């Protein structure tokens, strides 16, 4: 039987060093104050969808072991904006993090624990020693075995101290909206008030409803309140609410104070064409992100329903991306029953006239899906599931946490690809074949605030996109607090507006509510509001530079570099070697000339690389995979039939600098020890 990952030498945990602490009532913590508790360090950054998945994976463990387990979020930022303490405090509130968080903007604690990827988990025992070092998501089952082992061991030794932890809840933000995500215009006749015929012109709300019946209204995902809100064009008058406001998952009546339907951080939403809505039986498709489902909302009777998704985060059910030697991933239909399909953090949705389907930004798997409201068919239409920026045929392309979608006049789909700080485009041919191209963006770790030619321009984690009346594209450049404009005709980027608080969506408003000229409606998430923004006649030209995520560079020597990825299956699991070696490494480099030999995909977690002496620095891209299955071994040591199996995978981008006295070996932990 495989043992749980445990240290073979007692390694003392490093002290927790950073700028500030959150969720502690103003107190600073150190390891001495946490002695006697099992401490779980969660190295995260608030832009990272995998980190958000881990937050949800850990919640049941935190609740079950609240008297002995203390989770400490170590926030080690990727983007410049994430180093802003105000932005971090908002993110901690937004994602309802109920444990202490250490602000680590200089990556001091990150470096002390040799973290190399977001997310990374480190387990510290009640005596202050490291017992496990885990990369990626999907480790909840292993932790559910390890934590009781540590409890039993340290209760027997008398070193476990039960009692409440150091978490202190911050003061909650109040208001009609709380961290709104996306917005949708409801034309006259499509909004709930007009359909229900409830306008009462004798009251302020009734007067607004009368205006809504003439000019339309706005449906907003009130993400932090886990509901939808229909607003009048003044963005203040509430015409209707949908969802109980309690985080959860329930279908049924969604409208008003008696609503029982529940959502969990809803994000994107799209209004179906009237003929499609009549066939489907609902009007709006909602990306219910943390429930990993697409939901439907009927504005006629106010009922919510589930359209697609079984509620299981797709990476946990199907495993990480699998590609062939040419880099192509699976594309096409995912079966006949949409409720049996696993989704992963759907973030935005848009109607495609060419595909006659809803296009879905599946942020959690770095792919683009489609959903047919009439047949229920769910398909993968772009992205092989690998995270990064790669153009070309749809099934070979790479995306990185796509978060915003918009259709242009030609029926092509523009994509705000947040983790590559990129603007991408799905070119959809008449035969529905798709190719992917990038208008702005360079890679996973390149960002900035720079206007000019698209190849040189830089964004910072954009979440929203819309097409302007002249055919240019407006981008909610979220971490730059700006709305940017890309002109496909000239291939240039400019700036339309600045000084916004994490704009998460941008939409063109044609209602003439504030004048005769079209305006932009911006969802200003961190100010909990929608605002009108004029489209300026002359856009700004900004150049505040291009940046790269500054992670510590590992000094290595040119020539042979011995790579070891450590993995040990949790107690109760065994490596699945029934069909050969269940482990795999895939290795490449930037620039490609850095790697003379040792690249490519092959089995095993050990490999010798050869680094060129002519390339002074670069990045090694390493993907490790291991498969393990549940259940006690049979007498002959085999895994029993029908055992549940788990696929562990992590992608690393390791910055290296070549030095004569550099290291000749590199050790990474998939599920192992420092």
Automatic annotation (TrEMBL):
Gene3D superfamilies: Glutaredoxin, TolB, C-terminal domain. The keyword Isomerase applies. Pfam families: NHL, Thioredoxin_8. It comes from the Bacteria. Coiled coil: none annotated. InterPro entries: 6-blade_b-propeller_TolB-like, NHL2_NHL_rpt_dom, NHL_repeat, Thioredoxin-like_fold, Thioredoxin-like_sf, Thioredoxin_domain. Keywords: Isomerase, Repeat. GO terms for molecular function: isomerase activity. Residues 5-152 form the Thioredoxin domain. Signal peptide: none annotated. PANTHER family: NHL REPEAT-CONTAINING PROTEIN 2. This is Thiol-disulfide isomerase/thioredoxin. The lineage of its organism: Bacteria, Bacillati, Actinomycetota, Actinomycetes, Micrococcales.
């Amino acid at each position: 039987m495989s043992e749980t990952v445990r240290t073979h030498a007692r390694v003392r945990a490093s002290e927790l060093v950073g700028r500030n602490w959150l969720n502690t009532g103003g107190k600073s913590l150190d390891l001495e104050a946490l002695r006697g508790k099992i401490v779980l360090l969660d190295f995260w950054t608030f832009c990272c969808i995998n980190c958000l998945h881990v937050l949800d994976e850990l919640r049941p463990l935190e609740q079950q072991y609240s008297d002995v387990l203390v989770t400490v979020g170590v926030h080690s930022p990727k983007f410049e904006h994430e180093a802003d303490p105000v932005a971090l405090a908002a993110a901690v509130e937004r994602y309802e993090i109920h444990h202490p968080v250490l602000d680590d903007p200089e990556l001091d604690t990150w470096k002390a624990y040799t973290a190399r990827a977001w997310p990374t988990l480190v387990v510290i025992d009640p005596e202050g020693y490291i017992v496990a070092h885990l990369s990626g998501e999907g480790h909840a089952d292993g932790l559910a075995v390890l934590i009781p082992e540590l409890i039993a061991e340290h209760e027997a030794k008398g070193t476990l101290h039960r009692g409440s932890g150091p978490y202190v809840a911050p003061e909650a933000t109040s208001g009609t909206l709380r961290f709104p995500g996306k917005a949708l215009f409801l034309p006259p006749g499509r909004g709930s008030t007009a359909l229900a015929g409830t306008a009462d012109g004798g009251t302020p709300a009734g007067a607004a409803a009368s205006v809504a019946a003439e000019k339309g209204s706005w449906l907003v995902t009130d993400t932090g309140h886990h509901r939808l809100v229909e607003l009048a064009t003044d963005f203040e008058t509430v015409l209707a609410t949908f969802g109980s406001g309690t985080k959860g998952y329930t279908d049924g009546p969604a409208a008003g104070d008696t609503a029982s339907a529940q959502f969990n951080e809803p994000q994107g939403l799209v209004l179906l064409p009237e003929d499609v809505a009549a066939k489907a039986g609902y009007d709006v498709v909602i990306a219910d992100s943390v429930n990993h489902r697409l939901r439907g909302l009927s504005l006629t009777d106010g009922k919510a329903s589930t359209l697609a998704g079984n509620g299981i985060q797709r990476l946990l059910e199907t495993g990480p991306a699998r590609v062939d030697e040419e880099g192509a991933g699976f594309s096409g239909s995912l079966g006949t029953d949409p409720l049996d399909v696993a989704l992963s953090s759907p973030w935005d949705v848009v109607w495609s006239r060419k595909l006659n389907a809803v296009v879905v930004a599946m942020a959690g798997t770095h792919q683009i899906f489609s959903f047919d409201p009439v047949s229920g068919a769910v398909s993968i239409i772009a992205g092989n599931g690998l995270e990064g920026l790669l153009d070309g045929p749809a099934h070979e392309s790479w995306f990185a946490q796509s978060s915003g979608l918009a259709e242009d006049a030609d029926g092509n789909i523009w994509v705000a690809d947040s983790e590559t700080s990129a603007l991408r485009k799905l070119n959809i041919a008449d035969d529905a074949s798709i190719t992917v191209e990038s208008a702005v963006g360079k890679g996973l770790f390149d960002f900035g605030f720079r206007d000019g030619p698209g190849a040189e321009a830089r964004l910072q984690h954009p979440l929203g996109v819309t097409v302007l009346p002249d055919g240019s594209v407006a981008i909610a450049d979220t971490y730059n607090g700006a709305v940017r404009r890309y002109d496909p005709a000239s291939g240039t980027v400019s700036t339309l507006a600045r000084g916004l608080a994490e704009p998460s969506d941008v939409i063109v408003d044609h209602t003439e509510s504030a004048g005769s000229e079209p305006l932009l409606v911006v969802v200003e998430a961190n100010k909990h509001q929608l605002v009108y923004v004029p489209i300026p006649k002359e856009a700004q030209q900004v150049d505040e530079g291009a940046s790269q995520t500054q992670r510590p560079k590992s000094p290595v020597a040119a020539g042979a570099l011995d790579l070891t990825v450590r993995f040990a299956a949790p107690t109760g699991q065994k490596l699945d070697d029934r069909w050969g070696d269940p482990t795999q490494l895939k290795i490449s480099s930037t620039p490609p000339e850095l790697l003379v030999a040792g690249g490519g995909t092959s089995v095993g977690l050990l490999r010798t690389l050869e680094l060129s002496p002519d390339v002074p620095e670069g990045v090694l891209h390493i993907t490790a995979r291991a498969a393990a299955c549940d259940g006690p071994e049979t007498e002959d040591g085999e895994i029993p039939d029908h055992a549940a199996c788990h696929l562990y995978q992590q992608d690393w981008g390791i910055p290296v600098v070549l030095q004569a006295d550099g290291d000749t070996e590199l050790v990474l932990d998939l599920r192992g020890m420092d």
